[in-house]
Amino acid sequence: MAAKQDASARTRSSKKRAGSPEHDQPKPHRSRRKRAVRARSISVKRMTRKELELGEILYPRDEHADVVRPQTRGDCADAPRPCPYVSCKHHLYLDVSPRTGAIKLNYPDLEPWELEDTCALDVADAGSQRLERVGELTNLTRERVRQIEVKALVKLGRSRGGAALRDLPEAVPPCRRPPQ
User: For the chain, what is the domain count?
Assistant: First the structure.
């Protein structure tokens, strides 16, 4: 009997709170993501024939054939920033899946020239970065960046150069060293 009274008292008190001004305000969403807008993928398979034809008309392949793009890091080190070559595999604005051809816009709410850092190689030249900073640059959470880092270190440990990686204890923290 006492349990029924406690349950009904909780129901009544929650009904009172439901109409109160404190209850009506939405709770702030707590996310570790720095940006509110998530990356957006565009699948080539889902594009209509009309969209593909429009893309061919707007951006013909032969028109950009004479553009000389940097081939090495030395060629693009002194190039203007933000980097105008969005199609470069090191550009942070978009990623293209080599397997499916899907395009992932890392910053769908920004234009390429609005990015603070546009080249992954420039970021690498700046030296080691904190997980938060890498997450901001790639529009990923800190935890996802950590997971990718661990996975990459495991792959490096399995490769031929893995022995050299294990010999550098100061370069890789103990918690992130590949298994021996």
Answer: 1
Residue with token string 């969005």 = 86
Res. 35: pLDDT tops 90: no
- Would residue 56 count as lying in a domain? yes
List the domain range (segments joined by +) for residue 80: 32-61+72-119
Under DSSP, the state recorded for 78 is T
Q: Quote the pLDDT of residue 13.
A: 47
38 within a domain of the structure (yes/no): yes
**Confidence (pTM):** 0.59
In a domain, 161, yes or no: no
